[in-house]
Write a structure and sequence with these properties.
Number of helices: 4
Number of strands: 6
Oligomer: single chain
Shape: flat
Strand order of the largest sheet: 1-2
Helix content: 25-40%
Order of helices and strands: EEEEHHHHEE
């Protein structure tokens, strides 16, 4: 199987500082049975070097709309997410639900902090930060 969908993640899985990357040699990922799973282009030497170069100044973007949408998706699919979490983590029903609700609470209170001025985040009597 070779993924070649144009305009999405599949055809360009590598970005460096927001720029398309992956001009190195081609690599074919195969299953243990030899079936081709995916073909990708690795990063070139120049692209690898640019990963460690100083980060360019990027313009700020607003995260309010995508965070709001993500919060709504969590709320709309709470039951499904709880089932998925429970089946993949062996958490109890209550622990799974608490984790999902904690994610929703985090998204409700999420804000971009100025570096060096990050405050504490508290939920259900616990805090991080």
């Amino acid at each position: 199987m070779n993924w070649t969908t144009e305009g999405g993640y599949i055809d360009s899985p590598s970005l460096i500082w927001g720029q398309r990357a992956g001009s190195g040699e081609q690599y074919v990922n195969r299953s243990p049975l030899g079936q081709e799973l995916a073909t990708i282009n690795l990063l070139s030497s120049e692209e690898l070097s640019s990963l460690f170069s100083p980060r360019p100044n990027l313009s700020a973007i607003s995260l309010e709309q995508p965070i709001s949408k993500l919060r709504q998706l969590f709320a709309d699919h709470r039951s499904d997410l709880t089932i998925c979490l429970r089946s993949t983590s062996a958490f109890s029903q209550q622990d799974s639900l608490e984790t999902i609700k904690g994610c929703e609470s985090f998204l409700e209170r999420f804000s971009v902090e100025i570096p060096g001025e990050v405050g504490m985040y508290a939920h259900a009597g616990r805090s991080i930060g």
